[in-house]
């Protein structure tokens, strides 16, 4: 055995204790650390032939790379929609690497059964029925892509062909209708051979990102055959929600597959005040829900649900002598593009078992309250303009005067030590988004963000 490996093996308990202490020290600094530090990126170093051992690697990582890393897992990283890692999820992630399971076959089935238990808990968390069958994937992009792949196979079923066997060209022209589809949907359509141009934007309601139902029905009436509808349970800019129950009801007159992108909006189900926003979610044919957002498990983790696992296995089945049969509960190797994958279910299992429905309801409602605090402050601050109501956990706003991308960038640069926001464009207006989904974020953090924004806009 290589001498460095042998030494690390013999000293593993002490080394893991050192890593644990270092990680605890890092986590304890998150609330006060600069959110996006200005430290320069280190120059690339050559690979050592001899190696340095775990302890030296930890020390070098801490010295060279940690100063440049953002505090994206901290309470005031409000860009994109980024969660953190709960204590239980962190422990689960450590166990994931410790056990290093590639649970893709029933020949070694314990990991798959653990995943199914975690899927059942998630189904319950979001109020879904047992008819929704779920699988872990890497993120919302892959969840949307898997859902659309199943939808593609459903389109083939309506025409008596199988795109999985004969290719997407067997379908002819395909239309995918949506009011405000996330960019990952277009990416998925490209990967699936349906093409980005198959995505047709249906006009939204005035002043909203939610689809206009009358316009959607007109678009459905124009189609000569079945199509796909992508509905939103929480748009990325303003967290707007389509009327899922009403859209599902249109299937009585028009044939279409209903895919719902509920990447983070599904968590509205946990708040009694907001649960009505996801009414009808269970009626979807496929659903995307991201977990490294509001569930606060480590990247990368998401779940996809569908009512047609038979079509899912038709797309993703992997024929090999060492894999189990499809059956009523197919191995995960037959359900997603991946064969090899880490057992992402363990961090989700840990955090759900540790904090339960009540814990996640508290996290969700606290994040919503923080978003409202910032939204109310923006609305009352001269020089700032709120662009949409704070419906859930995102504040979308801009400068009241001359809201150019350059001026907004200058604003964010002034507050980057205190908070990180991401740019966007809403109805042609350059804007900023503050998204609250971190388990550590409190009212104190919201007020710190408000103070930083007010000071920055005063200096512009």
UniProtKB/TrEMBL annotation:
SUPFAM superfamilies: PLP-dependent transferases
Keyword annotations from UniProtKB, A to Z: Decarboxylase, Lyase, Pyridoxal phosphate
Gene3D superfamilies (alphabetical): Aspartate Aminotransferase, domain 1 (3.90.1150.10), Type I PLP-dependent aspartate aminotransferase-like (Major domain) (3.40.640.10)
One Pfam family named in its UniProt record: Pyridoxal_deC
Leader sequence residues: none
Transmembrane residue ranges: none
Cofactor(s) it depends on: pyridoxal 5'-phosphate
Lyase in keyword set: yes
Keyword NAD: no
Similarity comment: Belongs to the group II decarboxylase family.
Protein name, UniProt field: Pyridoxal-dependent decarboxylase
Native species: Saccharopolyspora oryzae
Lineage, opening ranks: Bacteria, Bacillati, Actinomycetota, Actinomycetes, Pseudonocardiales
């Amino acid at each position: 055995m290589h001498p460095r490996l042998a030494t690390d093996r013999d000293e593993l308990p002490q080394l893991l204790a050192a890593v644990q202490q270092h990680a605890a020290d890092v986590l304890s600094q998150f609330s006060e650390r600069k959110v996006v530090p200005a430290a320069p990126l280190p120059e690339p170093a050559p690979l050592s032939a001899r190696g340095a051992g775990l302890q030296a690697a930890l020390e070098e990582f801490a010295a060279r790379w940690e100063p440049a890393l953002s505090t994206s897992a901290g309470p005031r990283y409000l860009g994109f929609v980024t969660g953190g890692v709960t204590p239980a999820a962190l422990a689960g992630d450590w166990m994931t690497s410790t056990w290093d399971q590639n649970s893709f076959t029933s020949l070694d089935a314990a990991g798959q059964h653990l995943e199914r238990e975690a899927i059942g808990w998630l189904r319950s968390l979001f109020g879904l029925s047992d008819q929704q069958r779920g699988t872990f994937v890497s993120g919302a992009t892959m969840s949307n892509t898997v859902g659309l792949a199943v939808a593609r196979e459903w389109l083939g079923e309506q025409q008596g062909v199988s795109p999985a066997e004969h290719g997407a060209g067997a379908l002819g022209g395909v239309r995918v209708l949506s009011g405000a589809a996330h960019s990952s949907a277009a990416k998925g359509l490209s990967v699936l051979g349906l093409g980005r141009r198959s995505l047709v934007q249906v006009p939204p309601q005035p002043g909203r990102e939610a689809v206009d139902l009358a316009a959607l029905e007109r678009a459905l009436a124009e189609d000569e055959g079945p199509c796909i509808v992508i509905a939103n349970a929480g748009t990325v800019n303003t967290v707007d929600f389509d009327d899922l129950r009403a859209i599902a009801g249109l299937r009585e007159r028009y044939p279409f597959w209903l895919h719902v992108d509920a990447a983070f909006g599904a968590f509205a189900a946990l708040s009694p005040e907001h649960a009505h926003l996801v009414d009808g979610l269970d009626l979807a044919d496929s659903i995307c829900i991201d977990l490294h957002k509001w569930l606060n498990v480590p990247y990368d983790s998401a779940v996809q649900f569908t009512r047609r696992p038979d079509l899912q296995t038709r797309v993703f089945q992997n024929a090999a002598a060492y894999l189990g049969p499809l059956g009523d509960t197919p191995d995960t190797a037959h359900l997603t593009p991946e064969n090899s994958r880490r057992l992402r279910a363990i961090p989700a299992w840990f955090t759900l078992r540790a904090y339960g429905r009540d814990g996640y309801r508290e996290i969700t409602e606290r994040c919503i309250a923080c978003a409202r605090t910032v939204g109310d402050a923006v609305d009352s601050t001269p020089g700032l303009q709120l662009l949409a109501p704070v419906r859930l956990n995102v504040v979308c706003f801009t400068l009241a005067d001359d809201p150019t991308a350059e001026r907004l960038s200058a604003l964010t640069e002034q507050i980057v030590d205190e908070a990180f926001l991401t740019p966007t464009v809403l109805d042609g207006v350059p804007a900023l988004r503050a998204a609250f989904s971190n388990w550590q974020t409190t009212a104190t953090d919201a007020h710190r963000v408000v103070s930083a924004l007010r000071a920055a806009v005063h200096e512009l």
